[in-house]
Specification:
By secondary structure, the chain is mostly helical. The protein has a single domain, classed as Tetracycline Repressor, domain 2 (Orthogonal Bundle), CATH 1.10.357. It contains nine helices and no strands. It is elongated and about 70 Å long. It starts with 9 loop residues before the first helix and ends with a helix.
């Protein structure tokens, strides 16, 4: 993030690491492979955090807020933007595009199937068996977190403005975007459960 992908030259990497580029090349082969390994390390660390997360709370809103905290430690941080920047650049490289595409697949639909889906299922209760509801909740949270992270980097707003809009963990009462996301998802999930109950009652009648 500090100097950008293109300005992160082989020599600059070696200088900051305090070693020669030859030493790095011996381990990774190329600058592009090094970047891809960085992306993989970021992804593995995120997956470990998500897999160990505990979701608690008596209400649906509290549990969804917990999920948002867990996902926010990855999607809501600058490190995710760095990861995406590297992957976008590597995807345009004919020598690396296939490898980069596989990493994108693993971090997209793959991470939902392996981690984010089960994580959200802990929060959704009776709605957890509906794949579309779980996926919609995940994509809504993910989009909110990524947009917030990007806005922090590019928006010309007073200091602390984005944090006020995002709200704080556990603060679901204020007129903040975070609270709106959690409450909106809660309403949607409850409406879906009510719709199912009505359909079941009509079918049984």
């Amino acid at each position: 993030m500090e100097i950008g992908y293109y300005n992160t030259s082989s020599n600059e990497i070696a200088r900051r690491a305090g070693v020669t580029w030859g030493s790095i090349q011996h381990l990774f082969g190329s600058r592009e492979q090094l970047m891809l390994d960085v992306v993989n390390d970021i992804g593995r660390a995120a997956e470990e955090r998500i897999s160990k997360a505990v979701i608690s709370g008596e209400t649906l809103e509290e549990r969804l807020d917990d999920v948002l905290n867990v996902l926010g430690a990855y999607y809501g941080q600058d490190i995710y933007i760095v990861q995406m920047q590297i992957l976008l650049e590597l995807s345009a490289n004919p020598k690396m595009s296939a490898l980069a595409d596989r990493v994108v697949d693993r971090g997209g639909a793959g991470i939902f199937d392996r981690l984010a889906g089960p994580l959200l299922s802990k929060a959704l209760g009776a709605a957890a068996d509906d794949h579309e509801v779980v996926f919609f909740a995940f994509m809504t949270m993910r989009s909110f977190l990524i947009a917030s992270a990007i806005t922090r980097r590019i928006a010309d707003l007073p200091e602390g403005a984005i944090l006020r809009l995002m709200g704080k963990s556990g603060d679901l009462e204020g007129a903040d975007l975070r609270g709106m996301v959690v409450r909106g998802l809660s309403v949607m999930i409850r409406e879906e459960l009510a719709r199912r109950k009505s359909l079941a009652a009509n079918a049984g009648g």
